Amino acid sequence: MALLFPKKRKAGLKELSGAKMYLKHLHCALKLPKKAVICPLSSLTKYALSQGKFKHYNCEADIYAEEQKGFCYVTGFGVGAPALAMALEVLIGLGVREFVFVGLAGSLQPEVLASDMVLCDGALADDGVSAHYVPQEFLRPNPGLTKKLAGVLKKENLPHHTGPNWTTDAMFRETAEEVAHYQKKNILTVEMEASAFFAICAQKKVKGAAAFVVSDELHRLKWEPHFGEKAIFQNLHTLYHAAVKTLTGK
Question: In 3D, which of 107, 98, 209 has the Cα closest to residue 153?
């Protein structure tokens, strides 16, 4: 006998509470810019904050508002789809309407190497959050914002791959069989947030695009970490600038 409520029914139902009710409960009335770069990586924060004059707020995430340029940099909310979902819902409740997600991902294909940049054009929802928002198992980013980000990368002559991603909750349960399966499906990368990010943006009718820097390789059916390498940090900085320019034109 099935015990869980069917997720395919849930996506179309109204929630009992929501971010706006939660923010009212917290007596949080921040007024944020309508655009945000969102990143789970604390390692990008010092560099990002050196690139502008930010006001710091905290509401389920570290929110740094650059009011002159009209955007926020958001981090410090944790890793994985559930952590991202909480922060994203709160940001939407505070009025943000356009997001570029910047993060790290593992490579599933031999042509995608450590420190490469990848523009994500879709995500397989192998996470526990996405189905609470939309019934599809493959989620797409906002096409207009993704095209705009692609245009910035092209104009700046920044080499990158474009392709789909596999989102999983279980970083330490990625298997050789799964990697081989997704290689045959031409999935480029694996990470822990993108499908939930796209699902929430779609359900809340806000715009979202995403791009990654490759931090580890799995395409040889073994884990080969490259975290901490200088080229990865350099391309994270580059991707941050591309995200800001996509949102603000500056």
Answer: 209
Name the residue type at position 58: N
> Phi, psi at residue 240, to the nearest 5°?
-60, -45
Kindly state the DSSP code that residue 191 receives in the 8-state scheme.
E
Token pair of 160, please? 């990158």
Least-confidence region, from 1-5, 33-37, 182-186 = 1-5
- Mean of pLDDT over the chain: 96
Between helix 143-155 and helix 230-248 the angle, nearest 10°, is: 120
Which sequence spans correspond to the domains of the chain? 21-248
DSSP helix, strand, coil percent of the chain (3-state; round to 5): 35, 25, 40
Record: fold of 21-248: Rossmann fold (3.40.50)
Q: What's the pLDDT at 12?
A: 84
